[in-house]
Amino acid sequence: MAGEFTIPENLNGGLFFFGGIRRTVCGINTFPVFEPRTGQQLMQCPCADAALVDLVIGQAFTAQRAWAAKSPFERQNSGRFAYTRREPFGVVGCIGAWNYPFQTCCWKVAPALAAGNAVIYKPSPFAPASPVLLAELLKAAGLPDGLFNVLQGEAATGEMICTNQDIAKVSFTGSLPTGMKVQKACAEPKRIKPVTLELGGKSALIIFDDADMKTAVEAAMLANFLNQGEVCTNATRVFVQKYIFDEFQNLLLAEMERKLIVGDPLDERTTVGATINEQHLQKVCGYVNRAVQQGAQLLCGGIRVHPTNVEEGFYFKPALLTGLNDEMEIVREEVFGAVCLLLPFVNEKEAIERANKSDYGLAAGICTKSLSRAHRVAAQLQAGTIYVNTYNDTEVHIPFGGYKNSGYGRENCVECLHSFTQLKSVYVNIGNEQNINANKEVIDIE
């Protein structure tokens, strides 16, 4: 037998709640409330009239203005609040690379100075001049003396900067082996320093069989031959779906022959200039030679050349190779030269797995007409930057950096600015209302 339902005692103290307490309001109309279980009338509920509505809204308006004036921490803990502030590190050390010497310098120095730091900048010994020109530009723009300083040198100079106790943070762009040395030096001898590392890559460009061929070829050209191939994001591993492999290979080879003109960089007709030095030229040629010895097929280039009207210099004819496997040295290691590797794949799953099979994770590219596939694959690629139907785009408002051994931290955007600051948390007990009224200093702090 069902029991009888009664109104809970905690509802007997009034059905209005305003001004911080439950209230019973008399002299207003009521309306019946029925119990669905029995169909019997449960109560007569009071009905707010216009005067009561205006009264409660007015009280809420007054309360809200005082509430909004408080910080979230004040709202949860009366008489106290906390905040954070970003402060500069002090003097930071920045070590640049040789492939984009002026741009790399700007990427590091601008946010470091904007955050309130002084900068000690060491350029690469292979490209030392342009940071000095930037220093003169900053001087002319009104930057106070002593805030941007350029120190030339080799590895020993960089190590001295990293280990100096007055250097509070280091930002480095360069190779993985050198980056590991920088990281180690910044933990010695007595002061651990935060480090931003923008290191190398062995990026992959995946070309699906639904890709626009012209777009895909353009992406592959940008991903391999920009700046003589001396770009850390370059996608030298070009995975091409097997159904279009031969067609793509022929189109890319024709485009290389048509557009890649090796020569004096001061000649406007030149599209591929000199490599940085003799040692690096020999390194790039060595990778190609060993790959051929291991069974790779060299379709073009891969050798030192002497362009017309250039008697000396370090010139390399861009190479295109096929007949490769993922375990070859040239497929696994960063060459940092104009060497493009074509590798066939069957399906999406295989392409993603092979693209991610790398110690690096700086960038990756996707060529497809399917927007859903582009987003799906981008989400699975282990890289800090993903290019879709393009390659090597750079925007200063977009963060730049890598996964895995391609480093950590980001260049550009607000993330980079924040990386040149340290966070401070401040907790303040401002007392209760009586203390505030009695203590003018507390009011001034707020």
Share of residues in strands: 15-25%
From the 3D coordinates, which CATH architecture of the largest domain would you assign?
Answer: 3-Layer(aba) Sandwich
Per DSSP E runs of 2 or more residues, the count of β-strands stands at 23
Separation, N- and C-terminal Cα atoms? 65 Å
Helix content: 25-40%
Query: Shape, please?
Result: extended
Number of helices: 15
- Structural class of the secondary structure composition? alpha/beta
What is the class of the largest domain in the CATH system? Alpha Beta
Largest sheet report: 7 strands, mixed
Radius of gyration: 33 Å
For this structure, what is the CATH homologous superfamily of the largest domain? Aldehyde Dehydrogenase, Chain A, domain 2
Multimerization state: single chain
Provide the CATH topology of the largest domain: Aldehyde Dehydrogenase, Chain A, domain 2
* Number of self-contained structural domains: 3
What order do the strands of the largest sheet run in, or round the barrel if closed?
A: 13-16-17-12-11-19-20
Which stretches are poorly predicted, pLDDT < 50 over at least 5 residues?
Answer: 436-446
Mean pLDDT, all residues:
90
